[in-house]
Predict the 3D structure of the following.
Amino acid sequence: MDVTSPTIAVGGAVRDVLIGASAGTAVTFAVLLVTGILAEETELFGEFTAAADALLRASMGVILLTGLVLAIAWPAFLVAERTALLGALEKRAVTHPDEVPTSALRAKLAVPPGVVLARVGMVVFWIGVGLAALFLITTLLMESGEIGLFMTGGAVVVAALGWVVGLIGGRAADRQRERFESLRGGWRRDAARADAVARRRRAALPAGRLPRLLRRRGRHTARLATIGVWVVIAGFVLFYAAVFLRQPCRGCDPRYWAEPGERLIDVLATIGGGALLVFAAGALAGWLVSVGGRFLAERTLGRWIRTTSPQRVDEVELRVILALPSAGRLTATALAFAGIAALILATGMSWSEQAVESWPLSAAGAGMLLVGALVGIPAAQAQARLRNDLREHTSSGDLRDPLVAADDGDGS
């Protein structure tokens, strides 16, 4: 079953926010890069070209800083999540000794938090060593003096911190393995018993089918995503080709061609720009449809559980439903996506040469991140409850995700 606790719910919400923030940073970087190329090489923005160029250059620094923060936040979250999860499951084992967490939760603890911390420490150590060697060589060759020595010393400090973190993680991992093995013994016994009971109950249930809405497996999602990627690539290439034909560089005079050439430029710009707009509209519509569809599916699933008697349904369909994120969690991820993009642009505006007043956009971005986290907590709890109700109603037991590692804590 999905074990629920405030700690686990907060961890799920933080994960959703980090996923949205990481995706938002990457997409914002791509959009700014493309826009920057157009601003640098053409007069596409007219009188706003200088302001756009200053904003884009300042925003790149913000993106680098955001990437650094995310690079620290992700491993810190993974360590904190596993540490909190281990403690929460230990408490749950005392109050509910017959409960067995799902294989996905058990798989997370198969790698103790200390091991993750030790690996992060070693990565930081080798990064520090590499930077120290690079700065030292640069100092000796270019005679950069005190600045070079200062940067070398800073890299050495980073390497030392990584080494210390690795040692702390290694020692913590030994203690955490003992705690995990203590839980694992009970889970191995109880999981086998629970699976056997679920199989017997499932065999005794009458055959049934999920509502039609819940049997849609999203077969075309991957195909649509592939088409979207190619639309973006083709749209940008065609649009940039039209811009290049009109003005190869910023300092170049606009070029004018004979009638077939002018018509070709118009066609390329129209098709390319239209393709990018279609993709943007399609992506937004796809997200709205996915959130709305998930919300409707959850309502339908809850109604089906309340109004029908227990029945045996297709395991593949159940596995798909159990693997999909809830509408609330999708909303939390989207809010984090939009929030980090707004913060990057707002900070870039304040850092640019024009120093544009951007606090409303900053406040909006921070607000979206906060609301995303707050939405994600109850969404994670509600999703866990709905999944447990579905497992109970269909006697499905722990339907294992084939991507989950085999060594998930029950010896399978």
